[in-house]
Design a protein that fits this description.
By secondary structure, the protein is an alpha+beta fold. The protein has one domain (4-218): Class II aldolase/adducin N-terminal domain (L-fuculose-1-phosphate Aldolase, 3-Layer(aba) Sandwich). The protein is 39% helix and 14% strand. The chain has helices at 4-19, 77-86, 99-107, 116-119, 134-138, 141-152, 178-201, 210-218; strands spanning 28-34, 39-42, 58-61, 66-68, 92-96, 163-166, 170-175. It has a seven-stranded antiparallel sheet with strand order 4-3-2-1-5-7-6, sandwiched between helices. Strand 1 and strand 2 form a beta hairpin. Helix 2 (77-86) packs parallel to helix 6 (141-152) and helix 3 (99-107) packs across helix 7 (178-201). The radius of gyration is 17 Å and the shape is globular. The relative contact order is 0.16.
């Protein structure tokens, strides 16, 4: 079986977002890409997570053609594919409808960087996309969601802010691997929850100082990172 290790990693990422309470029923998906072959492994559409096996994962090309698998791929496949095409350093993508991140998406607000928990993982606010117009929705909807995400990241580094809120929909996150993308999905939900509580306690709360933002983000990311044992 091609991509056996990646199938197993993608399955584990899908199970992780369930374990962490980010997914109800089948409302979420994770995928990973093998950059050498240009093929993507993604969960099948509408299959209960508890029934998934590595061999159930669907393998497609970057154009969406099925290479392996007897099940239909996730309905969000085309969104994942657009992100892989646009963001060269991304190895995994995760989408959920987690409560607090989705609430921010429905409110149409970026998540401000209020403190160091946020700054450890996102180098600035978590952005929200512009609304999709009628043509976007009635046309190639999932692909157009991907285009909206890519447009929002013009001039930004995707791995410095590894996630976004699709307006009126929910969060998409990514990382160098699907395992790290699943971790980022968990972290984004916690960041969204803390931010909502912050605004509730102090509607006038302002963003973290830029120097403190840089200090926390750069100690974990980039060539001069000092956090951990690496």
């Amino acid at each position: 079986m091609l991509h056996k290790a990646l199938r197993e990693e993608v399955l584990e990422a899908n199970l992780e977002i369930v374990r962490r309470g980010l997914v109800l029923y089948t409302f979420g998906n994770a995928s990973g890409i093998d950059r050498e072959s240009g093929q993507v492994v993604i969960k099948p559409s509408g299959v209960p997570f508890e029934k998934l096996r590595p061999e159930d994962m669907v393998v497609t090309t970057l154009e969406g053609a099925i290479v392996e698998g007897g099940l239909k791929p996730s309905s969000d496949l085309d969104t994942h594919l657009e992100l892989y095409k646009a963001f060269a350093g991304v190895g995994g993508v995760v989408h959920t409808h987690s409560t607090y991140a989705t609430a921010w998406a429905q409110a149409g607000h970026d998540i401000p960087c209020f403190g160091t928990t946020h700054a450890d993982y996102f180098h600035g606010p978590v952005p929200v996309t512009d609304p999709l117009d009628h043509a976007d929705i009635s046309g190639d909807y999932e692909r157009n969601v991907g285009h909206a995400i890519v447009r929002t990241f013009e001039g930004r580094k995707p791995l410095d802010r590894p996630g976004i809120l699709v307006r009126n929909h929910g969060p998409f996150v990514w990382g160098p691997t699907v395992t790290k993308a699943a971790m980022t999905a968990v972290l984004l939900e916690e960041i969204a929850r803390i931010a909502a509580i912050t605004v509730g306690l102090n509607p006038e709360a302002g963003p973290v100082d830029r120097e403190l933002l840089n200090r926390h983000f750069l100690r974990k990311h980039g060539s001069r990172a000092s956090y951990g044992q690496g």
